[in-house]
Specification:
- By secondary structure, this protein is mostly helical.
- The protein has one domain.
- The chain is about 85% helix and about 0% strand.
- It has eight helices and no strands.
- The chain is globular.
């Protein structure tokens, strides 16, 4: 049980710190655009990467230095695109607040693919889940209890983001609150993109 709690505590701190992913998932949840499909994708990716880390983190750790720069550039471009989308909604304001307009062009497949992209194209996800959690789990007396705690943290967090959208949407009934919300999302995602750029060698 101790290993489970340690894994849960470490993972929840790492997951909450991934600002761009959380901001995008929350934005989709508020708009009720396939929030549970997106949540399932996000915590499934986390659980799978954590599992890979437990099984083979030493081998993967050696390969990451050559992969991370490419992932970083692709991740930066994707985050900037998502930030611009949020900024456009913030600027356009009231005309995009109806559900028909908010959901235009967004199919479940597109939402799932975007969730996969924003999850897999952030190099910090691999460093956190595969390397950090994998390395700690490999030294644990009960590595799979540690993994289960870490995976549970991801399931609970993304389920919370999916569930909170409906009550938060009621608070965002004002067009100005929607614009402030979208502006904040744009700022958070852009800030993460800038930090990724600054982390490049």
């Amino acid at each position: 049980m101790t290993e489970y709690l340690i894994g849960f505590t470490i993972a929840i701190g790492l997951i909450i710190a991934i600002g761009a992913q959380n901001a995008w998932v929350l934005g989709m949840s508020v708009r009720r655009l396939y929030p549970w499909s997106i949540a399932i994708v996000c915590f499934s990716v986390d659980a799978l990467l954590m599992c890979v880390g437990v099984l083979a983190f030493k081998t993967i750790q050696k390969a990451l230095p050559s992969i991370v720069p490419w992932l970083t550039w692709v991740g930066i471009l994707m985050l900037l695109w998502l930030s611009l989308q949020s900024l456009r909604r913030a600027v356009r304001g009231k005309q995009v607040l109806t559900m028909s307009e908010l959901g235009r062009g967004m199919t479940q497949k597109k939402a799932v693919m975007t969730a996969l992209g924003i999850s897999l194209l952030n190099p910090h996800v691999y460093l956190d889940t595969v390397v950090l959690i994998g390395s700690i789990a490999s030294t644990s007396a009960h590595p799979w209890q540690f993994w289960w705690g870490s995976a549970s943290a991801s399931v609970i967090w993304f389920s919370l983001l999916a569930a909170i959208g409906q009550p938060l949407r009621k608070w965002l009934s004002s067009p100005w609150r929607w614009r402030i919300f979208d502006g904040a999302m744009a700022g958070i995602i852009a800030w993460v993109a800038v930090n990724l750029f600054l982390s490049l060698p």
